[in-house]
Design brief:
Blueprint lengths: L2 H27 L1 E6 L2 E9 L5 E5 L3 E5 L6 E10 L1 H9 L3 H40 L3 H25 L9 E5 L10 H6 L1 H22 L11 E7 L8 H11 L4 E4 L16 H4 L5 E3 L7 H8 L4 E3 L2 E7 L2 E5 L18 H17 L6 E3 L15 E4 L6 E5 L2 E5 L19 E9 L5 E9 L6 E8 L14
Parallel strand pairs: 3-5, 7-8, 8-9, 9-10, 12-13, 13-14, 14-16
Antiparallel strand pairs: 1-2, 2-5, 3-4, 4-6, 6-19, 7-17, 11-12, 15-16, 17-18, 18-19
Helix pairs in contact: 1-3, 1-4, 3-4, 6-7
Length: about 475
């Protein structure tokens, strides 16, 4: 081995010992416990490829924030919550406003202590391992300590350079709640207890929303009196729990208008007319377009609901101060085992072409355009600012030529299909925040709940429409 090679090997050994000693010390003792408002919290730094900040609230879940991209994650864990404090907050929701400022100040102080502790541990860990490996070779130990401190400095600089305050504006909540639907039992138990299952899903949404309200003290979009709240749902497919979930979201988010992009039923038979009675139990306007599984009988049943607004033609309808335009799907596929993916594209896009003509002819341009199949939205690109669709059973959002297309997943979790052999899909809803005067999309909250037997719940907030993206090929449902 040449002298140069030995020197390189020694340098690598010195750096490795320094880094390993610092890492071990931080992993073993790099934790700070502090009071944050009524909570007892643990703060720690952990290696992570994705970076960011994670706030754990066991057993409810986590709040994830994309605050930075350096290879270290700040973890905040709430370990204790005084029961009397929790009851006081539940009795007086106004305490949440003061709670945000109090917790933020306490956590900031804890983070400063954590950074200082990490710096000390880096020096001690590098020195301890250096002495253990190099014995009394003090110079090598000092070099190892220098390597550990330099690594800490680089990570700190990377964190500062990649820090993005906008990450605080788009929190993502993921949780497992004690009152989740799986508590009902297996599929047979769910079939025998649909009422209880529906109530539990509604309570699940309520609990998640209350916790999300507590996290809204983060810098984020705050709706005001000039904001119209619109709930986008789609593809209920006879789900016996869908209207329980919708009703809970309407109440918790103070929804002004519900828009439904079709496929309320499966076969479209007269026997299924009863299902749309769930619309009449809601206390807000309900705009609806026919899906490919909805028949003219179902559309007539929807028209009989006192709060329903059936969109099916060139007329612009006003609801909650917004101008709406929509048309039902051109197909009717009563056999729910097929999704009619072989239908000619021109048949589907004809709906969008008719709506594009109606949009051009309207003196006061519509704020929202509703279609069932995303393919129908193609002629509206570059015209309507916001188009809502469903059909795909998969949530997608994209902006192209100034038109934002929001494709909703199945709000019914694919309905009864989950009980007939199909894999249950997540229950998806989206709350849109629109400017009352211009109808411009200001922000939107994506709500995702687990399907039958699943306890997962997530809420993600997005600010404004997404940037323009290439148009993918939509699939049917």
């Amino acid at each position: 081995m040449t002298t140069r090679s030995r020197r390189l090997l020694l340098a690598a050994e010195l750096v490795g010992v320094g880094l390993l000693g610092a890492l071990l010390a931080v992993l073993v003792a790099g934790r700070v416990t502090t009071d944050a408002g009524p909570f007892r919290t643990d703060l720690s730094l952990r290696p992570s490829l994705g970076g960011g900040t994670q706030v754990a609230v066991p057993p409810l879940g986590t709040l994830e924030l994309d605050t930075h991209d350096s290879p270290v994650q700040l973890q905040v864990g709430i370990t204790q919550l005084r029961p009397e404090a929790a009851r006081a907050i539940a009795d007086d929701p106004e305490q949440l406003t003061r709670l945000g400022d109090e917790v933020s100040a306490d956590v900031r102080s804890g983070v400063i202590r954590l950074v200082l502790r990490t710096a000390v541990l880096t020096v001690l860990g590098s020195a301890a391992l250096g002495l253990l490996v190099f014995r009394r070779r003090w110079r090598r130990t000092l070099v190892a300590v220098g390597a550990g401190v330099s690594a800490l400095g680089l990570v700190g600089a990377g964190t500062a350079l990649t820090a993005d305050p906008r990450g605080l504006a788009e929190p993502r909540f993921t949780g497992l709640l004690a009152s989740a639907p799986a508590a009902v039992g297996d599929v047979r138990g769910i079939l025998e207890s649909f009422d209880a299952y529906g109530l539990q899903l509604g309570q699940l949404v309520t609990n998640v929303t209350q916790l999300y309200d507590a996290s809204s003290s983060l810098p984020a979009f705050v709706p005001d009196d000039g904001t119209v709240r619109v709930l986008h749902v789609s593809d209920l497919h006879l789900s016996p729990t869908a209207f329980d979930v919708i009703d809970s979201v309407v109440e918790q988010f103070s929804i002004d208008l519900v828009v439904d992009t079709g496929d309320s039923t499966d076969h479209g038979t007269a026997v299924e007319d009863y299902y749309v009675d769930g619309v009449g139990r809601l206390d807000v306007p309900y705009a609806w377009v026919r899906g490919n599984h909805d028949s003219s009988d179902i559309q007539a049943a929807m028209r009989r609901q006192p709060n329903a607004l059936v969109l099916d033609g060139p007329d612009v309808v006003v609801a909650a101060g917004l101008r709406l335009l929509g048309q039902g799907d051109a197909r009717f596929t009563p056999d729910k085992t097929t999704r009619d993916d072989d239908a000619p594209t021109e048949v589907i896009t004809a709906v969008g072409s008719a709506l594009a003509e109606a949009y051009d002819a309207a003196v006061d341009k519509p704020h929202l355009v509703l279609v069932h199949d995303p393919i129908s939205a193609r002629p509206l690109v570059g015209k309507a600012p916001l188009v809502l669709a469903g059909h795909a059973h998969e949530r997608r959002v994209r902006t192209e030529d100034g038109t934002t297309l929001m494709v909703q997943g199945s709000t019914g979790g694919a309905g009864l299909r989950a009980l007939e052999g199909e894999e249950p899909t997540p229950i998806m809803l989206t709350v849109l925040y629109l400017d009352a005067e211009t109808g411009q999309l200001q922000a939107y909250d994506e709500l995702t709940l687990g399907g039958l037997g699943d306890t997962d719940a997530r809420i993600s907030r997005r600010i404004g429409p997404p940037p323009s993206t290439p148009s993918p090929s939509p699939s049917g449902g």
